[in-house]
Amino acid sequence: MCGVYLIVEFASTGFTVISSSAITLRAHGKDVNAIAISPNDQLLATASQDKTVKLFKFNTKTTMAQEWATLIGHKRGVWDIAFSPVEQCVATGSGDRTIKLWSLSDFSCLKVRISHALQFSVYLNNIIRL
Description:
- This protein is mainly beta and 130 residues long.
- Helix content is 6%, strand content 55%.
- It is built from one helix and eleven strands.
- A four-stranded antiparallel beta sheet has the order 4-5-6-7, with no helix packed on it.
- Strand 6 (52-59) and strand 7 (64-72) form a beta hairpin.
- The chain is globular, with a radius of gyration of 14 Å.
- Mean pLDDT is 77; it is low at 1-5 and 9-13.
């Protein structure tokens, strides 16, 4: 079975992506384009070419991660992702030229904006402040 594996290591300050791992997660069936770690280091989000975003919860005592949710709704690969500073939502930017704001309580899409920019990072950080 082919797939992309995300490799992370637990550190006392949070989780960091490295080349060898303490934890290996099977995340997506295609390339992972971006990752984001929540401000409190409890959640990890992966954005993929397979048009999905996966959310993982980390247990800081056992350093284990468990898939929590999959966000589905983009028509092309997801290129960027950003958590809200208060973790009530997450923003995603896709090759379909949309930026979506998702609820972390019920995983619904709260807002959709059309973007003509190829780089989403600046836009995601501005939208997250809404």
